[in-house]
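FORM 12-B: Structure-to-Sequence Request
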């Protein structure tokens, strides 16, 4: 969805509602395509004393896998975005949305950038997910696998350190 910035500023109507579904199957988050279903975008473009402002709520159904045990995960992520809009390419306001060369506010792009910035690097099926055994691949959430612990004392010292975290 794109909105003509100058047309909006000159329009007596101070309000443009925004409500649409945006398919983002190609959007990569850490090398992964998480948005198998369209994300929903809800919000408004408003103006006051010649300054436009955009407010968005992005509701995204996420499909990913647990970074430890690779179990499929699905949940709903929500992002909020609010910023002033300007056509001043030299603006010092790093928070502001700058309109593109054709004078349009590219809502799709704002949504994509917002999701890239907001999504976590990794997700876990639960905070204390035990992951998979590095030797046999068994899901250790279902119980121990019977693989022998490495007897090398250097590794146990290292493991003790890691366990402290
Ligand atoms: Zn897991
Ligand atoms: Zn094992």
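FORM 12-B RESPONSE
SEQUENCE OUT:
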């Amino acid at each position: 969805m794109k909105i003509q910035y100058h047309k909006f500023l000159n329009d007596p109507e101070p309000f443009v509602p925004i409500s649409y579904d945006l398919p983002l199957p190609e959007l990569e988050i850490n090398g992964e395509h998480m948005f198998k279903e369209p994300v929903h975008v809800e919000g408004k473009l408003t103006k006051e004393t010649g300054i436009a402002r955009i407010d968005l709520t992005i509701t995204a159904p996420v499909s990913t896998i647990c970074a430890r045990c690779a179990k499929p995960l699905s949940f709903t992520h929500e992002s909020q975005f609010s910023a002033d809009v300007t056509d001043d390419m030299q603006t010092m306001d790093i928070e502001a949305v700058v309109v593109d060369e054709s004078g349009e506010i590219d809502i799709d792009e704002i949504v994509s950038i917002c999701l890239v910035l907001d999504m976590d690097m990794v997700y876990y099926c639960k905070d204390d997910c035990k992951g998979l055994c590095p030797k046999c691949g068994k899901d250790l959430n279902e119980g121990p696998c019977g693989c022998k612990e490495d007897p090398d004392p250097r590794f146990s010292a290292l493991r003790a350190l890691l366990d402290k975290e």
